[in-house]
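[DERIVE C-ALPHA CELLS]
===
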Amino acid sequence: MDGLLRGDYQSRMNGYAIARQNGWLSTNDIRELEDLNLLSDEEGGNLYLINGNMTKLKDAGGFMKQPSETEPEEDPSEEEEDA
C-alpha cells in the first residue's frame, strides 16, 4: 500500500535531495521511506549534512579561525629593521 501512496519517482527524489542537502533528512531517513535496508553509522547512514561540500551539521562554521593563545606575536626585531 505504501508504494501506491508515494507519488512519482522524480518528485520523491527531488524532495529527498532538497531534504538531504539542507540537513533535515539523513540517508537512513530516506532509505526507510523507500523501504530500503539501512546503512550503519560507520557508513554514515545517520549523519545529517548541509550543503557546502556536505559538511556535518555539528561541524558547520568550524572552518572559521578561532583565536589561539599559541599564535606567535610579532618579532620586535622586525620593527627595528623597518625604522
User: Anything to note?
Assistant: The mean pLDDT is 79. Residues 1-58 form one domain. Strands lie at 49-50, 55-56.
